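Deliverable D4.2, example record:
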Amino acid sequence: MTTGPTPTPQPSPASTGTLSPRAQEVIAARQGQSVSSGTASKGVDFSKINRGYDPVTGKPMTKVIYQPVKGVVYNEAYINNMSPEEREAFQQKLLDIGAYPKGYVPVKGLVSQQDYDATAKLVNIGEQKGIGNINTVIDTIKKDKELQAYLKTGGFTGTGTKVITDTTEAKSNLNSFFLDMFNDKPSKAEVNAYQNALNARERTAKGGMSAQERNDIILSIANKRLSSLTSGALTGDMTAAEKLDEGQLGKRVREIRAQYEENGIPVSDRTVYKLAGKSFRSETAWDTVQEDIVRSASLQWGKAAEGLKPGQTVRSRLQPYITLRSQIRNVPEDQIKTQDVVDALNADGTLKNVADYKAAQYKSDDYLNGDEYKSVVLNDTKTVLRNFGVM
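Output generated by the structure prediction step:
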């Protein structure tokens, strides 16, 4: 949204017997005459995280076969210490080489257990190949079809062996997700609920759990926290409201609310919070939320919103009218809501001619009752009448 400067009220002209250009423009509009228009990698010991599973025995691979180059070692901190931009780029590399489970798409910038598992795969390959730099491992995989096949055959994702996540790992997984999403650690009860749900699913899963299944269990715990915060915020709990404005959750809430406002669609806080929680399931889920907002805009604004694509908004279509409204009514653009400019539509849903809209603004009750009209037109008119001896 472009925010235009607040127009500075112009002083009344000296007593010359004529009206100022601004006053003439206003009077012309009132009389129905034409109006002129204008317009770096970090890490420590990696030995404590799972290196995947041996494709032959199905047992966890924990032995360090190769000691990395001095100073180049990796653990969960390797990803956690990246900037959001570095993390997204690294996730894309992992996705491109097939390091994630089939069908899994990482949530950009949001760390998950799948990111740690994928990194562990690369470290394992590096140790066996004698490569001490993770980026060199990635380059090697791109050129080696056997390694590419190895990543895709499930050699690192468990075979017939049941793997039950222990308390330490469960807490670490949920802790990382909650810190990203809520900027807060999960409670002991939340960790226990996550581990119980995860372990129950692991005991019944045939062929191992998918990354999305694990992610959905984490989200189910996170959404209970979100639901509790939402209820609190909607009943006046300021602490809960502040929590909803933190972390990746707060960022997503602001993004969703801004998109509704930019498209001139009324929305409740409860709906915004619900959609924010839903959007974290995957990149596709976030895309769907945005597409639904665009569809809602098309239903509300008709032809004025035809052809909008994700990222485009009704407000961008209405910008010329918003600028005029700002200039004429002497109101900053950022204080004009998109839904306030519904008067820019014709009865059939098409946009009005800009010049006609400008004239209509000068005739509006809001303008005629405002200070700008009184100072520009009435004061100038009194000056002219005095010059002719009428007053």
